[in-house]
Amino acid sequence: MPAKPTTGILSILKTAVVNALIALVLFSLMVGIRTEAGSDGQLTYWMRFGELASLVAVVFGGSIVIELLRQWIGPSGTEKLVPPAVQSGMAFVGRFLAPALLIFALLVPVIFYNQRYILDLAILVLTYVMLGWGLNVVVGLAGLLDLGYVAFYAVGAYSYALLATNFDWSFWICLPLAGILAALWGVMLGFPVLRLRGDYLAIVTLAFGEIIRLVIINWQELTGGPNGVPGIPRPTLFGIPLDNSDDGLAARLGIEYSPTHRIVFLFYLILALALLTNWVTIRLRRLPIGRAWEALREDEVACRALGINTTTTKLTAFATGAMFGGLAGAFFATRQGFISPESFTFQESALVLAIVVLGGMGSQLGVALAALTMIGGFELFRGLETYRMLVFGMAMVLIMIWRPRGLIGHRAPTVYLTKAKAISSDLVKEGHG
Amino acid sequence: MSGEKILGVDQLTMRFGGIVAVHDLSFAAERRKITALIGPNGAGKTTVFNCITGFYRPTGGAIRLTHDDGKQIALERLNDFRIAKQAKVARTFQNIRLFPGMTALENLMVAQHNALMRASGFTFLGLIGVPTYRSAEVHAIELATEWLRRVNLLDRADDAAGNLAYGDQRRLEIARAMCTEPALLCLDEPAAGLNARESAALSELLLSIRDEKGTSILLIEHDMSVVMEISDHIVVMDHGVKIAEGSPREVRDDPKVIAAYLGTDEEEAMAVMESGS
Amino acid sequence: MDYFAQQLINGLVLGSIYGLIAIGYTMVYGIVGMINFAHGDIFMIGGFIALITFLILISLGLTAIPVILLVVLLVSMAITALYGWTIERIAYRPLRHSFRLAPMLSAIGMSFVLTNYSQVAQGARVKPIPPFITGGYTLHESPDGFVIQLSNIQIMVVLTTIVLLAIFTWLVSRTRLGRDMRACEQDQTMAALLGVDVDRTISMTFVIGAALAAVAGLMYLLYYGLVDFFMGFVAGIKAFTAAVLGGIGSLPGAMLGGLAIGLIETFWSAYFSVEYKDVAAFSILIVVLIFMPTGLLGRPEVEKV
Fold it and tell me: Where are the transmembrane segments (chain C) (predicted)?
């Protein structure tokens, strides 16, 4: 807990004692006493002095450490501490980081061929990289805050699941359809919220995401409700199934069947989808529509004065972002083989948004790094299921305090005359929406 | 008034709740001329601008824009972006509105949005990189470069607009408006905050826009040295109504104008009179 | 008609609870200009603390219901207020002059922290309490046997809300603190120049908002007889809807909006479908924001060019 910067051992101790006392009051009832409904429905409780004492001790010790660190580093915060030489060094690394990451990504199935766990994790990370890049169009480029992005992910997933299970349509037909349907939903959401700004836009998109989820839960005849949609067909290599049947890929190639084939295939599928998202986004940024998105983020009034139709510009941003979300959703459905509303909660939206913001609003490389960090970090706490979201929430708070502008804090210009100079994020606006 | 009319404002009235910001205002701006709209603070000048450029919908009255080909456009019926897109009216803002996180060049590219949008086949052709779009983009960069040269910002082309000095930002905003290739350029206090040298350069720039590009200019300005030097026609407003109009000389000697300025701001009144002597 | 009257009563009670939470949103938004996403979870924490205090008092052998209620009220208000204060210090104050998305994400993070802290500390299962305040009045009995009930707990919820609202309105309009709050709402820099302790005023806003949310938590616990760790999210969004509907920044508006949302939700459940009651509430939020972004009692915002 923060306190005014002061000097001397005594004042540090005093701060620590005060913080420990606050912690004692905060945790006294919530941690010190555990309630549970017994078998007869009667509530019982028991004391947990040990846990309470150790938490207070942690706060006490933590306060001392933080205060000491603060005195060493100085009160002015850590933001400006990175020397320019290091910064330019980082920029140098940054130039080679993206190709290195790409090569590494391409080689992942080769390096980790027999490690199913790592392949699954890599697929998960790539799914979030794609979602992050998709949301980046809306939030990072157009500056429209979307807290309901998971809705489009859900639309894509359910589109594929329902089309495939009801009509036996192939994945390769459903994939573009899922994208188009999600884009249509993006426009549907976009229309009413065109006039909204800032936090209001955020809350309306959040409500929209929740509505979609609640409809999926309650429209049982169509969606199966909370039970979800089981038995979603696995993807095929353009018609050739990846199983150990006689006309499966393994049989046709005359090699021994292994379930890893499908995992590797899924890995390259999501890698291709993510790279498509990246390629399209990078191209769009250099097209008039992409520049208009960024201009919209910078100043909407000026855009209108220049004859830019802000309505269609916003709608295309929503539609494009939603389309990528829908494609990722269709992939998710085919990978899981089963989907239910539980996969499309607000926490998913918040996670993707956190990836975009941590990545540095508009930076493609930053988003990829952020997805790797967040999902990888998330995975570390897999064993502690209930603590995961707790840690995730704390991480969000700490990251915002540490780097409110994200990992990559500059913007690359889309066109230049003599030399492309990176633009400091202090100048780049965050949009009104 | 003689000559061909580009903009006709007829009995324009703008009310906000109970407040009448502009009342029954009529004036005209001539083609290839610089028309200045002056008046004390709070006279309603910016409101008139916002009505002309579609940011406000007038309570009453008509605003007509006549293009070179004789086509008339009723501006009071068009809303915001269509005025810039179809009627070809561009504007700048009193409190500079650039895209600060984009480079000077990018700012000028955004201004050519509609032309580039068509060339990119509404994004789809541009996405697959057709040659027509590439040549359109090269052309757009050339136009932007020309304007950067004109406003003397060529060496700052790749710098963020937000990093430019104040006077540079003012000029960049004018260049950006000109990149939309407007028929009428509306400038809201372009000389505000400029020093004497920068003001003189601005006057020169505006004259060259009028004479070389043939663009008509409508100007709100407090800097009387600029107004008196470059204006072909001056409209004076006070409390939402027109109190005088005419050539710089006529306006300068009009007792009503002097009274309006004296009644509100002595310094400006002195400026009006001094610039005449 | 009788059914309608019964639903009206139920809706007003639910609306009072939403209104109490909505005040916290509206105050914080008014002064700091951010949606305190964690506020719904503060309400949940308030409910839990009330529950635990109840248990302790009862196991200590106390039987006087008014005494128990008073102690529970004060304890949960005090501790929950400290939660509000701490969250502002940790998660929002360092970001006050940062860019706009940062405090919002920090608030979302804080909301996750509180939800899961509660789950970890108290378990995921619903915590029921036996009906504590029983009895009530039969207002009307129709020939076909339908009875309009007004229970004591309903009376208590509404009365408490009215009393708190009165105290609170007095606080904001008549005291030094209230004046400081209104000054900070208008212009923080100017308020600071004129000697208003902005940090302290903002802290107090969070403290008061959290205390009111704690009261709402207690009322919820008494009225529904249960709490769980996830109840803050939906209640929070609905209360925010109420704040927006009433006109964000306006205290009477928050109460009015709360009542409106409570009534709409109750009537929707009664006459249309229970499953879609949350969809109805969220749809209203969207419709209100689009067509009436300033709400019922809010100040209009003019676009400056």
Answer: 12-35, 42-62, 68-87, 99-118, 153-172, 202-223, 280-298
**Contacts with C, A 69-108, CB within 8 Å:** none
Residues of A in contact with B54 (CB under 8 A): 304
Distance CA A69, CA A5 (A): 11
Q: At which of A40, A74, A108 does a domain end? A: A74
**Chain B residues bordering chain C (beta-carbon distance below 8 Å):** 46, 50, 55, 93
Residue B93 inside a domain? The answer is no
> What are the tens digits of pLDDT across the range C279-292?
888 888 888 877 87
Give the CATH number of the domain where residue B73 resides. 3.40.50.300
pTM of the model: 0.86
Distance from CA of B61 to the nearest CA of A (A): 22
B186 within domain boundaries: no
Based on the domain organization, do B120 and B247 belong to the same domain?
A: no
**Residues of C with CB below 8 A from B55's CB?**
303, 305
3 state DSSP class of C253:
helix
Domain region containing B147? 98-181
Is a pLDDT exceeding 80 seen at residue A289? Answer: yes
- Which residue carries 């920068």 as its tokens? B198
**CB pair distance less than 8 Å for B162 and A419:** no
Residue A128 lies in a domain: yes
- The interface predicted TM-score of the complex, written ipTM, equals 0.85
Cβ of B113 within 8 Å of Cβ of A298? The answer is no
The nearest CA of chain A is from the CA of B135 a distance in Å of 13
Q: What is the domain extent for residue A361?
A: 92-424
pLDDT tens digits, A276-286: 999 999 889 88
Question: Is it the case that residue B269 has pLDDT exceeding 70?
Answer: no
User: Torsion angle, CA of B168/B174/B176/B179, rounded to 10 degrees?
Assistant: -140
Residue A432 C-alpha, separation from nearest chain B C-alpha, in angstroms:
13
Which residue type does C223 have?
Y
All domains of chain C in start order, with CATH = 2-127+152-291 (1.10.3470)
Q: Which of B181, B209, B224 lies at the terminal end of a domain, its last residue?
A: B181
Is the same domain home to A396 and A344?
Answer: yes
Radius of gyration over alpha carbons of chain B, in Å?
19
The answer to whether the CB atoms of C105 and A354 lie below 8 A apart is: yes
Q: Does residue A49 sit in the same domain as residue A110?
A: no
Q: Is the CB of A298 less than 8 angstroms away from the CB of B100?
A: yes
Number of domains in chain A: 2
Structure confidence by residue, pLDDT tens digits, A159-185: 999 988 888 888 888 899 999 999 999
Whether B81 and A429 lie within 8 Å, measured CB to CB: no
Of A292, A306, A421, the CB nearest to B84: A306
Count of CB contacts below 8 A, A vs B? 145
Nearest by Cα to A410 from C13, C63, B162: B162
